Amino acid sequence: MAKLTNYEVGERLGIDFTHASMLKTGRRLPSARLLVELWDKFNLSGDDLLGAYKAGRPAFATYMQEMVFTAPDEDPAPETPEPGK
């Protein structure tokens, strides 16, 4: 899993990197608009996203760190056959 920076998450969501950092550390909860953006841009489960939101800032921060600030590694390039095989 690749780690996304506050800048990268902020850029995807249309927010400042400091706002992304506050979401990541639990200092802030997202607005309704931002919840929709998170769900849409990161293909998150609506039930899990809302569950983390309802559980409060520490739970939401953990969810953000696990589901948003990590991204699946890129698919490796397809192997090219060696000449003569």
Give a written overview of the molecule.
The chain is mainly α and 85 residues long. The chain has a single domain, classed as 434 Repressor (Amino-terminal Domain) (Orthogonal Bundle). Helix content is 56%, strand content 5%. It has five helices and two strands; from the N terminus they run E-H-H-H-H-H-E. The protein has a two-stranded antiparallel sheet. The longest helix has 11 residues, at 57-67. It is elongated, with a radius of gyration of 16 Å.
Taking the alpha carbons of the first and last residues, their distance comes to 33 Å
Number of strands: 2
Coarse morphology: elongated
Contiguous runs where pLDDT drops below 50 for at least 5 residues: none
Helix content: 55-70%
The radius of gyration computed from the alpha-carbon positions, rounded to a whole number of angstroms, is 16 Å
- CATH architecture heading: Orthogonal Bundle
Structural class of the secondary structure composition?
mainly alpha
Largest sheet: 2 strands, antiparallel
Strand content: under 5%
In short:
The protein has 85 residues and is mostly helical.
